[in-house]
Design goal:
This protein has one helix and 14 strands. By secondary structure, the chain is mainly β.
Length: about 230
């Protein structure tokens, strides 16, 4: 038993060293916005991954709660909480609110000036769609952490790629599943005063082809706010 225990201990240490820890990381609390560069995909003819001729960029928005739970977001608005603080005062994390529920937006203060008035700053991505406003991912962000999750587009989902409103045979699509994951082995660094985290990205898509399609690449995240709660 002692030998097996020692072997498992070495294995766990090795896994951690490769950034494979699937656990929340509260130290990464805040809003992270970044870009995924997909540079490898499965070639259906050979069934193996190979570099692409032209890399594809996907915008990604993640929020990490004070408990370390990671949420994939489709959009979020950065606004100022209701208070007596003048809008001209500098915005700080203590005065900001991150909103994914549109019903909360009326009455909130702005953070950027547009056409002479302060408005909230909306951040959005068209690269990830799923029912609801948030998708909880397993794991965490940070050095030696990884996160993973699965999103699904049902056959009748509005953005299912096999649906077409003007084709009588394409009123309903096929079920598309995307299992995605990000892993980080290096600590975050400061880039022009912004905390930046770089890692590896991998996604397996089923439903588009008779065989699963795997895409791989690099993800670069910037922490744009340290607010660890949403809609509060």
């Amino acid at each position: 038993m002692g030998g097996w225990a020692a072997a498992w201990g070495v294995l766990l240490l090795a896994v951690c060293a490769r950034g494979q820890v699937l656990a929340p990381n509260p130290e990464a609390a805040g809003l992270w916005v970044g870009e995924i560069t997909v540079n490898q995909v499965t070639h259906v003819a050979g069934g193996t991954n190979a570099p692409v001729a032209d890399a594809t960029q996907l915008r990604v928005i993640l929020h990490v709660g004070t408990n370390g739970v990671v949420r994939l977001l489709k959009d979020v608005t950065v606004a100022r909480k209701r208070s007596r603080t003048p809008d001209t005062a500098p915005a700080t994390d203590a005065s900001l609110i991150l909103v994914t529920n549109p019903s909360l937006l009326p009455g909130l203060g702005g953070v950027i000036r547009r056409n002479g008035r302060l408005v909230g700053q909306r951040l959005a991505t068209a690269s990830f769609d799923f029912p609801g406003q948030e998708l909880i991912l397993e794991g965490g962000l940070g050095a030696n952490f990884r996160c993973a999750g699965t999103l699904e587009l049902a056959p009748a989902h509005p953005t299912n790629p096999f649906r077409h409103p003007f084709h009588p045979n394409l009123g309903v699509g096929v079920r598309v599943t995307r299992a995605l994951g990000m892993r980080f082995t290096q600590p975050a660094s400061a880039v022009q005063g912004v905390t930046q985290l770089t890692g590896e990205y991998e996604e397996t898509v089923t439903g588009l082809h008779r065989a699963p399609l795997v895409a791989k690449g690099v993800v670069v995240l910037n922490r744009v706010s340290g607010v660890g709660v949403l809609n509060q």
